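Hi all, long-time lurker, first post. I run a small reading group and we've been trying to get comfortable going from sequence to structure in the token notation. Rather than ask abstract questions, I figured I'd post a concrete chain and ask someone more experienced to write out its structure so we can walk through it together at our next meeting. Sequence below, copied exactly:
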Amino acid sequence: MADVLDVVVVGAGASGLGAAIRLRQAGITDFVVLEKASSLGGTWRDNTYPGCACDVPSALYSYSFAPNPSWTRAFAGQAEIRQYLADTASRYGVLPHLRFGVELVRASWDPDRTLWSLETSTGPFEARILITATGPWHEPLMPSIPGSFSGPVFHSSRWDRSVSLAGKRVAVIGTGASAVQFIPAIQPEVESLHVFQRTAQWVLPKPDHHVPGVERWAFRRFPVLQRLLRRAEYLGMEALGLGFRHPWIMRAVQQVGLLHLRRSVRSASLRAALTPSYTLGCKRLLMSNTYYPALAQSNVSVHPTAVTGFDGRYVVGADASRVEADVVVLGTGFRILDLPVASKVFDGSGLSLADHWKGSPQAYLGTAVSGFPNLFNLLGPNLGTGHTSAFMILEAQLDHVLAAVSSLIHRGWSSLDVRPEVQAAFLSEVQSALTGTVYETGGCASYYHDTNGRNSFSWPWSSARLRTRVSHFDPTAYTITAPLEPAR
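-- Answer (accepted) --
Happy to help. Here is the structure in token form:
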């Protein structure tokens, strides 16, 4: 058995790399990052579908300590984001800590030894502290569709480059964030495109543009300019964020979406099919300048119905429609709340996170779970804001986690376990505050709600409050176990 590590991080996407960088910055170097894939990048490694890009402004979509003055678009594309993550990991010296091709099979808390025992695809690890950074946009949600389809079927996050779509009849199931990006990208090359839309989406104009070379030069030469842009973009997104907490604002903003739809689609019947019946913000905000124009093209048909089955070459809709296709692309999203890692992490009595949660993920400040000492979850439950950068959320959590980890290591504590009454009080406060938000009053069904109907995704307050509250580590919120041996 190898020596006990201070920390094991699971996942080498933006969250895991951020944790690794912050650990090194704190002088903690006895750690590894386990990554089941052969390279880093997380969701930006996996999602290579045509048109894949960020829906948060580039200047905001980066670590605050590692700004990138070289973004070529206001909203960066997948390849640039993945390269940014790789460059940042190299720059901050975390590459030697990465262990590729190592998949977590089981992590169990040993209460007698106060450490985490990990079983992986390549052998065991032991660590005092476990940080899960597997992300909510990782495992694709594969719909259960009766019957069988005789052609290729693949999910947008597992895009099959061996399948040429040129001149093919393509059926797309789902119209979420990924589909809004890849539909315009593939529309010009296919013979026909059949889009199955269970629920119409609000799509706002996207203020995207190429960033001129002179602007990038200015950002490199005068970094304060990019900091000012980042601040301006943050404030702009926060202004929009007010609408999530005050739905009347969203009902006003959605008029922009209606105008965008009218300008892009001439057909009254198609506009009717594409007009949502719920309040903007109830589902994830989508932005695109090309989605509506693509749907209006002559080789595209929108079917406002769910899919109920496959029959050979046919895709069957809930309205009994039958569409013949050569290829099916699933734009059905991810297992946002049904996190696979929850079934792999076990407490001292042998119960998993999934056993504790029973379909409703819960964590104190989205980070620590009572009964699971020395475990910290990045981008955990009830931290989704709907409008701002995941990097902002992540960095607030990392402030909290690094304070806790440093205390465990340098103050010689054996374990930290958030007190159950503290976690319960936080969760009650969150659910109460969510009551009047657009997530709960907008009149839609969204992935923000888990299998029990509970909103386990959304943060009900401002992102400024998230930064302040989540970043603060309060030892009195935890049960602290004295060391079993003298502190190092």
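A couple of things your group might point at:
The chain has two domains: 5-139+335-481, 147-330.
The first helix runs from residue 14 to 25.
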